[in-house]
Design goal:
Blueprint (H helix, E strand, L loop, with lengths): L1 E12 L2 E12 L3 E5 L6 H8 L7 E6 L2 E2 L8 E4 L11 H11 L4 H14 L15 H13 L5 E5 L7 H16 L3 E5 L3 H7 L2 E6 L2 E7 H7 L4 E8 L1 H7 L4 E9 L2 E8 L5 H8 L3 E8 L4 H16 L3
Parallel strand pairs: 3-8, 3-9, 6-7, 7-8
Antiparallel strand pairs: 1-2, 1-4, 4-5, 9-10, 11-13, 11-14, 12-13
Helix pairs in contact: 2-3, 2-4
């Protein structure tokens, strides 16, 4: 069941079309990757969801009904550009932001204590924000985003500035929040994080949605019939066993065995390739190469741009 839906959202700034009939559906309790190049329209959509701005046309729905201003308390938003008050004490600021989201003073204090202890930053409660490193400031902002236990969380480049250890810490907390029932919209240019975290993605480019689907299906749809084979045998014999529908992309030889990367130009299944190789080689491993999300992102955007630029 969808928690959040955007239907045919259009937004125009002067002569610039930021969003052109963009529709997405985010399933309850999932992590949804909102992807796209810089300037594609992602931030505009996020601003519309947070009611910072309004669409020129289209609908924004929460649990099947039009969103209203009071729904802001059900959303947690971590923007790419951080917004803490540098001269203000951390604990005082966190309490203030938590109460803005509707928590009582005692609820805010209890929830913040839990998160400050979890992230091992309790000793910083009385410090000013400007005394913290960038990574520590981002931990505080993450806490103020989730402290009121929102139904819908929006993270825009949440790992920016984090070292690998703290990145993994935050990833685990995002997964924990999902497992506890939160629905998450996750925007990033880091495709490896998308593969680790997201269930479903939508790719926006030049204001339009050009790709949408479960991440496993998206990767399957964009595979190129490329296979990687490790074998023992004579390469010349292997090469002669292949007909014109195969293209050798790469071949390496070593004392322990040979590796062949090959593409089936006709798109036939791998079983046919195995049958052709067995009489001339001992196959030690065989797998189809599934593209990474980084590969898919580049391929889809470049193809779309090439088609759009045609006269």
């Amino acid at each position: 069941m969808e928690l959040f839906t955007a239907k045919n959202v259009v937004k125009v700034y002067g002569t610039t079309r930021a969003l052109s009939n963009v529709s997405i559906s985010v399933q309850r309790g999932s992590i949804f990757g909102l992807l796209g190049p810089n300037g594609a329209g992602k931030t505009t959509l996020i601003r519309i969801i947070n009611q910072i701005t309004a669409p020129d046309s289209g609908e924004i729905l929460l649990e099947g009904r039009r969103m209203k201003f009071s729904d802001i308390g059900r959303i947690g938003y971590l923007p790419e550009e951080r917004g803490l008050y540098k001269k203000m004490k951390i604990g005082e600021q966190a309490l203030y932001l938590a109460q803005l989201k509707g928590l009582s003073h005692s609820e805010a204090l209890r929830n913040l204590k839990y998160w400050f202890e979890k992230f091992d930053i309790g000793a910083w409660w009385e410090k000013k924000v400007e005394e913290l490193s960038k990574g520590m400031q981002q931990k505080v902002q993450f806490i103020t985003t989730v402290v009121h236990k929102p139904q819908l969380l929006i993270f825009d480049e949440p790992f920016s500035g984090f070292d690998p250890i703290n990145t993994n810490l935050l990833k685990q907390e995002i997964l924990n929040l999902r497992d506890q029932g939160a629905t998450i919209i996750f925007s990033t240019h880091n495709m490896s994080s998308v593969e680790e975290l997201c269930d479903h993605i939508a790719l926006i480019n030049r204001s339009k949605k050009i790709l949408d689907g479960p991440i496993t299906e998206v990767k399957e749809q964009h595979k190129s019939n490329i296979f990687e084979i490790s074998y023992r045998g004579n390469f010349d014999q292997v090469q002669r066993s292949l007909n014109h529908t195969y293209k050798i992309l790469e071949h390496t030889e070593s004392a322990s065995g040979n590796t062949l990367r090959i593409q089936h130009l006709a798109g036939h299944p791998g079983n046919e390739l195995i049958r052709g190789l067995l009489p001339v080689a001992e196959i030690t491993s065989f797998h189809e190469v599934i593209p990474s999300m980084n590969d898919v992102f580049i391929k889809v955007v470049e193809n779309y741009n090439a088609q759009s630029n045609k006269p």
